[in-house]
């Protein structure tokens, strides 16, 4: 094992060459296929960004029209999937429901199990994933609140359709607020890809065994779920609520985060790669102000968040460790203003990250990458003689 380099958490290990996302953690740069995240967030739409990530180029008008039409056409899901949904208890976390429903697509479309299928067939799976994920996400929520599910409305754009499936009730008229749909679209763009993060690496490793794309994406959803990754957006709001309930003393929580005997961390702070600032956090902070004022919402936790950010950025502990607010620090505040319940925040992240996972899976397969199989440094017992149970 002398040849093996140990790198727990892969802090310094490149697992692949990739032409999808460029990230410079020192300079706070993020680009998808060469396009600045700031420009995409301001000028593009989520589906356009999805196309860019997956196929490598911004779509022409015709390409975009076909792509969105194809996605719209596949939003409906097999009726039997409702039976799977019905089997979940109402307290099931929507991330678990989402990953299960996505994985179930491998049963409804078994051709996805064939690693040698043609490009058209793979592309159809990609379209199906993008089309059905919002339906599953909204249905996971409906299961939780005990409301009947809504079917997709193909007259609406991607985010408006999702919002309607989430919030419309049979007894009430529901109109999608365009401010809400636009804000959601921008959040999804900001989450769309982030090179070899934990969930993306998971998608690539699972896919490298030539498991189906549905199984690979489902695994990515599970990796995203944890509080150190996508689950952080839920944890941030819970933390801010806890600070508020405790009287709003941010310093007390800052001290807790610095205390090495206390497992508490400042959620939404720190990043494996960004060591100066997270460019997505900058855009989101401004968006939080804009969206809340447009919607006329006054959420006291936005003030707590700003106070906490200011205090941390001026605290030696955080300065020394180069800990800055990450994408999740302000995203939850916007989700909350949009009416998204807290335990759906990570599901929203998954909706956003889906094109990135797909693009990375596709690149990995097209480049014929070998199976992902890290090595280890063994530190257990050396050879031992077996002792029968009655002698132990
Ligand atoms: N609060 C307090 N201390 C922290 C924090 C934090 N949020 N983050 C890192 N540190 C400390 C850590 O204790 C360590 O200190 P020391 O050197 O004294 O032992 C030092 O900073 C380096 O941290 P690390 O854990 O070695 O860094 P990492 O690259 O392994 O972890 C991280 C990165 C994002 C998991 C971590 O910063 C963290 O747990 N942050 C809070 C959770 C969070 O916001 N996650 C979302 C990440 S961004 C979006 C996403 O990926 O989903």
Automatic annotation (TrEMBL):
Involved pathway(s): Carbohydrate metabolism; tricarboxylic acid cycle; isocitrate from oxaloacetate: step 1/2
Any one Gene Ontology molecular-function term assigned to this protein's record: citrate synthase activity
Catalyzed reaction equations: oxaloacetate + acetyl-CoA + H2O = citrate + CoA + H(+)
GO cellular component terms listed in the entry, alphabetical order: cytoplasm
One BP annotation, GO: tricarboxylic acid cycle
Record InterPro entries: Citrate_synth-like_lrg_a-sub, Citrate_synth-like_sm_a-sub, Citrate_synthase, Citrate_synthase_AS, Citrate_synthase_bac-typ, Citrate_synthase_sf, Citrate_synthase_typ-I
Annotated catalytic residues: 271, 328
One protein family per Pfam: Citrate_synt
Top-level taxonomic group: Bacteria
Family: Belongs to the citrate synthase family.
Name of the protein in question: Citrate synthase
Lineage, broadest ranks: Bacteria, Pseudomonadati, Bacteroidota, Cytophagia, Cytophagales
């Amino acid at each position: 094992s002398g040849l093996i380099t140990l790198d727990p958490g892969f802090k310094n290990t490149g697992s692949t060459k990739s032409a999808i996302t460029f990230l410079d953690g020192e300079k706070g740069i993020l680009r998808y296929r060469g396009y600045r995240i700031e420009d995409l967030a301001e000028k593009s739409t989520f589906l356009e960004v999805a196309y860019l990530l997956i196929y490598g180029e911004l779509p022409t008008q015709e390409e975009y029209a076909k792509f969105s039409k194809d996605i719209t056409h596949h939003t409906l899901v097999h009726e039997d999937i409702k039976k799977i949904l019905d089997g979940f208890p109402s307290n099931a976390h929507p991330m678990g429901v989402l990953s299960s429903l996505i994985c179930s697509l491998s049963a409804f479309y078994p051709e996805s199990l064939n690693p040698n299928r043609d490009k058209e067939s793979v592309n159809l799976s990609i379209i199906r994933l993008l089309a059905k994920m919002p339906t599953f996400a909204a249905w996971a929520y409906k299961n939780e609140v005990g409301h009947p599910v809504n079917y997709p409305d193909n007259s609406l754009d991607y985010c408006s359709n999702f919002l309607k499936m989430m919030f419309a009730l049979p007894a009430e008229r529901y109109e999608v607020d365009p401010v809400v749909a636009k804000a959601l679209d921008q959040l999804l763009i900001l989450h769309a890809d982030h090179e070899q993060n934990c969930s993306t690496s998971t998608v690539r490793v699972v896919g490298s065994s030539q498991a189906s794309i549905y199984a690979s994406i489902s695994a990515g959803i599970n990796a995203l779920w944890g509080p150190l990754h996508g689950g952080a957006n839920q944890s941030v709001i819970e933390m801010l609520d806890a600070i508020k309930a405790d009287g709003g003393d941010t310093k007390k929580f800052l001290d807790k985060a610095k205390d090495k005997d206390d497992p508490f961390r400042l959620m939404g702070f720190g990043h494996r790669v960004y060591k100066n600032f997270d460019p997505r956090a900058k855009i989101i902070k401004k968006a939080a102000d804009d969206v809340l004022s447009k919607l006329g919402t006054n959420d006291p936790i936005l003030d707590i968040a700003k106070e906490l950010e200011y205090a941390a950025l001026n605290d030696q502990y955080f300065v020394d460790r180069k800990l800055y607010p990450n994408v999740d620090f302000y995203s939850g505040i916007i989700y909350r203003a949009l009416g998204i319940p807290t335990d759906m925040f990570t599901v929203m992240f998954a909706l956003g990250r889906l094109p990135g996972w797909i693009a990375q899976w596709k690149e990995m397969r097209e480049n014929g990458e070998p199976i992902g199989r890290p090595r280890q440094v063994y530190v257990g017992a050396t050879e031992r003689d077996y002792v029968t149970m009655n002698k132990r």
